[in-house]
Specification:
Layout (H helix, E strand, L loop, with lengths): L1 H60 L3 E5 L8 H16 L4 E6 L6 H12 L8 E4 L15 H19 L4 E4 L7 H7 L3 E6 L6 H8 L9 H4 L2 H22 L4 E4 L2 H11 L5 E3 L14 H20 L18 E6 L8 H15 L9 E7 L4 H17 L5 E5 L3 H9 L3 E3 L9 H9 L2 E5 L2 H7 L10 E3 L2 H13 L2 H14 L5 H19 L2
Parallel strand pairs: 1-2, 1-4, 2-3, 4-5, 5-6, 6-7, 8-9, 8-11, 9-10, 11-12, 12-13
Helix pairs in contact: 2-18, 6-8, 10-17, 11-12, 11-16
Protein name: GDP-Man:Man(3)GlcNAc(2)-PP-Dol alpha-1,2-mannosyltransferase
EC number: 2.4.1.131
Membrane topology: Single-pass membrane protein
């Protein structure tokens, strides 16, 4: 009996507990429904307000407006070249359209930004462009998120995109820096047509493989790669983020990617093949075509002949001038790229140090080699990275043979490239590699990383002829540089000629043609 009473008491308690839960669930369900309805009404109100502002602005201006989202438009990288060439092409093609750039640069004016574009890229816009200066660019700075950086930057980009949208509502929104999470905000809240130019997927299957295989990289810390549990958690985090990234990116009406490598990843993540096309980024190859490769190398061979004759006669006199066209006693190895961690300038310096070690101190040794690192610094973090690289040079004992040039104007960049022997590139899975193309156009022999765009699109055979060299480690880079320096002038000339002919498909004109073709469906609808 006692056991029966105990069971009866438990059943009564269970029934009371269920009634209590039911009494709580019903009000919570009603409250959730009410809050959802309020949120939907709020979003609907925001959409109507923003789209009303867009229509009123268009009626006032008398024409449509295209806005580019580029928080770092005053930087000097390849992404900024895409921005200015895109604007120039659209301005020339559509004279009745107004243009706006959302930028997070502070302490500069629009005129100074345009002057910087002219000096760095030799690009002048045919018409004025309006700048919307955003105040919260720190929200997309990697330094703001020591952990969960991808998620933090993506969430920050949404807030920065909201600031941009409330400041100005365009008819067509173009994300030219890869902030995919801004696309749904402009499409669904602002009622804008949206397009995107993807330089590099925010997350990729290659990043997942690095974490799965527990390889330390700049974006996979040592303490995570050494811990199997943390690596597993990070894989799950990347997979979830990749799903959200794909959903955000699929909002784009037109998707342009800069290389075969990027295309493969974007198709896998965004799954919009009918709206996706390759538009190779613009490279200013015309500016380098005035360098007569044949004449320079004929001079090199003649000068080397005079040097050999002088040595045979016992003459200690030096013959020749500087650079590639004269003083063969100093070979310049040039790297062009922003001072970001993924560019892996440390690999360049370490490989160069190994090359110097193999040369020794005697005649024709380390004194005939010079490494020049040219690039742009976007912020304080990049400037601190340059200081760290200078420290590495001192640590390895090569600071006397390594020079840094920051944010140089285009003419100085051109001068350094056309006098260089080797163009150096070390970024793993570089999405494209504008610097690689510029080196090839300038007549330097390219040594690029054996991955990504350089491997698939750029340093590829041209009419069955070699166009450059590829490497993927300190030893292979040092060996490749040794091989290039040991080539005869005629062998180097053949590679340089092949390389120069092959890069015509990456010209400004080719980019403008492909970019205008990709955006034609959206632009033609804007003018109606």
């Amino acid at each position: 009996m006692a056991g029966h009473d105990h069971q009866h008491h438990l059943s009564l308690c269970f029934c009371d507990f269920m009634r209590l839960l039911w009494s709580l669930v019903v009000p919570c369900a009603y409250l959730s429904l009410l809050l959802t309805l309020v949120l939907l009404l709020l979003l609907l109100g925001l959409c109507m307000w923003l789209q009303g502002r867009r229509k009123a602005r268009r009626a006032k201006d008398g024409g449509p407006t295209v806005a580019f989202f580029h928080p770092y438009c005053n930087a000097g990288g390849g992404g900024e070249r895409v921005l200015w060439c895109s604007l120039r092409a659209l301005m020339n093609r559509y004279p009745g359209v107004f243009f706006v750039v959302y930028t997070g640069d502070q302490g500069v004016t629009g005129e100074q930004i345009l002057e910087g574009a002219r000096q760095r890229f030799n690009i002048t816009l045919p018409r004025p462009v309006a700048f919307i200066f955003l105040r919260h660019r720190v929200l997309v700075e990697a330094s703001s998120y020591p952990h969960f950086t991808l998620l933090g930057q993506s969430a920050g980009s949404m807030f920065l995109g909201w600031e941009a949208l409330t400041a100005f509502v365009p008819d067509l929104y173009v994300d030219s820096m890869g902030y995919a999470f801004t696309l749904p905000i402009f499409r669904y809240l602002g009622g804008c047509k949206v397009a995107s130019y993807v330089h590099y997927p925010t997350v990729s299957t290659d990043m997942l493989s690095v974490v799965r295989e527990r390889n330390p990289r700049f974006n996979n810390a040592d303490f995570i790669s050494r811990n199997p549990l943390l690596s597993a958690v990070k894989v799950v985090y990347y997979c979830c983020f990749a799903l959200l990234y794909g959903l955000a990116g699929s909002c784009s009406d037109v998707i342009m990617v800069n290389s075969t490598w990027t295309l493969g990843h974007i198709l896998a993540l965004w799954r919009c093949p009918s709206r996706t096309s390759i538009v190779y980024p613009p490279c200013d190859v015309r500016a380098f075509l005035d360098v007569p490769l044949e004449e320079e190398d004929e001079e090199d061979e003649m000068e080397e002949g005079w040097e050999e004759l002088g040595q045979e006669l016992g003459s200690g006199e030096e013959v020749g001038g500087g650079g590639r066209g004269g003083d063969r006693k100093c070979h310049s190895i040039v790297s062009v790229g922003q001072f970001r961690p993924e560019k892996d300038h440390q690999l360049q310096i370490r490989a160069f140090s190994k090359l110097l070690d193999s040369k020794g101190e005697g005649p024709g040794g380390r004194e005939m080699l010079r490494l020049l690192l040219i690039g742009g610094c976007r912020n304080q973090e990049d400037e601190e990275r340059v200081l760290m690289l200078r420290g590495l040079c001192q640590e390895l004992g090569v600071s006397d043979r390594v020079d840094f040039k920051l944010n140089v104007p285009f003419e100085e960049l051109k001068r350094e490239l056309v006098t260089a022997t080797i163009g150096l590139h070390t970024m793993w899975n570089e999405h494209f590699g504008i610097g690689v193309v510029e080196c090839m156009a300038a007549g330097t022999i390219v040594l690029a990383h054996k991955s990504g765009g350089p491997k698939l699109d750029i340093v590829v055979p041209y009419e069955d002829g070699q166009t450059g060299f590829l490497a993927d480690s300190e030893d292979s880079y040092a060996a490749a540089m040794e091989t290039i320096l040991a080539l005869s002038p005629s062998a180097r000339l053949e590679i340089r000629q092949n390389a120069r002919r092959s890069v015509e498909r990456f010209s400004d004109q080719e980019f403008e043609t492909c970019f205008l073709a990709a955006t034609e469906p959206l632009m033609s609808n804007l003018e109606r």
